[in-house]
Design a protein that fits this description.
The protein is of the alpha+beta class. Helices cover 18% and strands 31% of the residues.
Length: 192
């Protein structure tokens, strides 16, 4: 028995590492975990000077991308975040903010309507126009960010008259009466 355990111990260890490695997430910790006090965009717009330098984790839908000489600026329509830090599309807009990320990020990949979550510090507020309306944008100096994969849209058609668990081939009498196409229990009384 001891020889059996010695032989299979390395294989069991490798299997455990593979199984535990499948549980790992590639989302950065600063994105996945919320800061101690989670500021909202509207709170910062109401009192911008009081929150300068505060740590934030915001996310939403990319509205526009501007590549500057040494950095990329994003205008993002904020959405509430779920427990993993991904923007919830059904949450509604929480206001717009600007995110300043060092380096070049391709606008074809970071395209409008994609979901982006950023983590960083509030640097300043910037007055810009949304259409003709002057809008106060909080500016985040980004320390970490994550572009979420596109959501998979379910294109399954469902009949509105039947519940989702309905199965037209289900036979509740199968174990007792032999199936949908045999109406009598086994054996039939006159076949004995």
């Amino acid at each position: 028995m001891a020889l059996f355990i010695k032989r299979w111990r390395p294989a069991a260890g490798a299997l455990a590492l593979l199984l535990l490695g499948g549980c790992a997430s590639n989302v950065p910790d600063r994105i996945r975990l919320s800061p101690a006090y989670d500021l909202r965009v509207t709170e910062v717009q109401a009192a911008p000077k009081r929150h300068l330098g505060a740590a934030v984790r915001w996310g939403g839908e990319i509205v526009s991308v501007q590549n500057k000489e040494r950095e990329t600026w994003f205008e993002i329509l904020g959405h509430p975040l779920d427990s993993e830090g991904r923007p919830r599309p059904e949450g509604g807009g929480e206001g717009r903010f600007l995110a300043r990320i060092p380096g070049f990020l391709d606008p074809a990949i970071y395209a409008p309507k994609r979901e982006l979550t950023v983590s960083g510090r509030l640097e300043d507020t910037v007055m810009r126009r949304v259409g003709e309306f002057p809008y106060l944008f909080p500016l985040v100096r980004v320390e970490d960010y994550y572009l979420w994969p596109l959501r998979q849209v379910s294109d399954r058609w469902r009949d509105p008259w039947y519940p989702p668990w309905y199965d037209p081939f289900y036979d509740p009498w199968y174990p007792y009466y032999g199936g949908a196409y045999y109406p009598y229990p086994y054996p039939h009384p006159w076949w004995r």
